[in-house]
Task: structure prediction
Amino acid sequence: MATASPKVITPVEEARRFMVDCLKAVGMPEGNAVIIADNLLEADKRGLFSHGMNRLERYINDLKQGSADGSATPVVAQESTSAVVVDGRNAMGSIVGTFCMDLAVKKAKETGIAIAVAFNSNHFGISGIYAKQAIKQGCLGLIFTNTSPIMVPTRAKQPALGTNPLAMGAPGNGDEFVLDIATTAVAIGKIEYYKRKNEKLPEGWALNEEGEVETDPEIALKSGRLMPLGGTELNSGYKGFGLGMLVEILSGLLPGSNYGLLIPKWGASTEIRNLGHCFIAIDPMHFVPGFQDRMTDLMEMMRNLEPIDPERPVLVPGDVERENEERVRKEGGICYIQNQHDTNAKLAQELGVQPMGSIAARPLIDDCKCKEKKKK
Amino acid sequence: MATASPKVITPVEEARRFMVDCLKAVGMPEGNAVIIADNLLEADKRGLFSHGMNRLERYINDLKQGSADGSATPVVAQESTSAVVVDGRNAMGSIVGTFCMDLAVKKAKETGIAIAVAFNSNHFGISGIYAKQAIKQGCLGLIFTNTSPIMVPTRAKQPALGTNPLAMGAPGNGDEFVLDIATTAVAIGKIEYYKRKNEKLPEGWALNEEGEVETDPEIALKSGRLMPLGGTELNSGYKGFGLGMLVEILSGLLPGSNYGLLIPKWGASTEIRNLGHCFIAIDPMHFVPGFQDRMTDLMEMMRNLEPIDPERPVLVPGDVERENEERVRKEGGICYIQNQHDTNAKLAQELGVQPMGSIAARPLIDDCKCKEKKKK
Result:
């Protein structure tokens, strides 16, 4: 019988060390490995575990198969005053993403707004990290990326667009707005969670192979058909589909990467995926003074609205993730689930790197949400 | 008893003449009046009647009360290489919008991407018209505007953001993508339509004054509380709320116009509304060649997907509106509902302008959707 055991915390530095070692073991230069590890850590710190260390194994597979090039660095293929096209050269997505947002911010500081689009790229992790990259430079950032088909367009039977996330970051005064959403109603991870809970799905999340709304999570997972934000056509799902196309146009069509049905499934083959991204930076210094004050004011205006349930205050995009970051700081590290520790142990052995160490949680912590099962 | 009568069609030229005459009668210069009339006509031609001539009476009220200035023209308040801030000088929104998109396109042709934001503006009609303005110049256009509070943020009890629409246009080959959506689940007009049909609302459209999901259209209309795209928090309504904030940030915070709760209700007072807009233009000539081909290919890829119901093919944003435009061309004019003709007759009398003339529909037409009641 599994009983609760003391919480296990992995210091951020140790999680980074482990990921960097794994990536180096499959031939990635240290500089690139640190960028990838920091990208995945950022997701874990923000509580978005599905996009954090959870992805390390997949990244390592891509590198081993040669479907992504761990040593590659992107280059500028075409350049205008406020626009850049970047050839990702099949580098890891986060290397391409960081490079592009940096270029967009530099140009936006000169001209007010700038855009960098990339082709020949790979999965770039959470979009929010690039939003934060822009915020750190005092800019607004808009981020778009295409992904392999999983969203079923309104009225269609089959998936033809990806989860196609869009993100926006904007700086306030000691505060920030970070929106990072898939244009599907939910991500696959949420359906997996309902399966674990053995609960029916709400209507509007997924379809079965006949194109009917499906509430059985097991059937939904097998069919692999997510509905666009909004759900059914009656509930304006065509708007979510439209937003998915908007993302595809900016991230896939402008840079001339693969798009829609042309994008191969991730991990299914050694085929190069040729994903596209789009990064737009806007420097508020080129607009009416006081942007950051207004940003803070708008966020406070929303947070201070009377909530329906006094226990559940109104949150603005980024608030939940910031609370998670705060917990990681207080607890001195990240609380990974046992499943992640098991995967890491296997990776460490396979790659011949030092296993990831952890510490027992400090006595002050009582709100760590992750349940660790007793090791036998 | 009302029985079906022959369909009544108003030639586009006559509808324009009538609107221009009405606007001139309240002191608007002819040049401005033509821009406003064309904006409203564009909505009617695309079948978006709520945003067409239906708005003329409200515009005339604004002008009579002096809450908007029919003679004003906007000016550039601040300018950078790829960014402009426009002072709308309380002009009619469509005058400001047309001016801004024109500036954004001109700059984008030079630099790849450009942004024009406006403060001190008014309601600007359908966003799609500015998307089409960009398309005509071979550019992509992104359009954002704030509006008076009517959307209830997730978990809140009261409205704090407007319907905050976003639009995007992109040129294909003899084809175009025009997305134009409110970030609320639906617009108020749809709830009015359900009231007329005497049908319950689907869950996820509106709230009552207690903040509960409301399915009675009458109560929903009285409460004036729309839910964000997605609906409830469980169905990802927080994404729609986040998109509403994204629109508010770009259109309200960058230009320093009113925002959120600061925006007065439309028509409720003579108070100046000081709305804000944001227009982004992107010139595909600064990116990888062949954008228009890829755009057409992506749209065809979607339209050719196997539909769940063979009678209901997959549509891309803009297809329905283009079909409506086609019908107007075939029928030689616009088929307004009797209610609109009644309002026009009243306006003509009040303003002393020649009433709007109409013609009986040509015999070839049998698919005009609007039902005309027999005049007594």
Notes: The first strand of chain B starts at residue 8 and ends at 9. Chain B has eleven helices and eleven strands. Chain B touches chain A through 83 residues (CB under 8 Å).
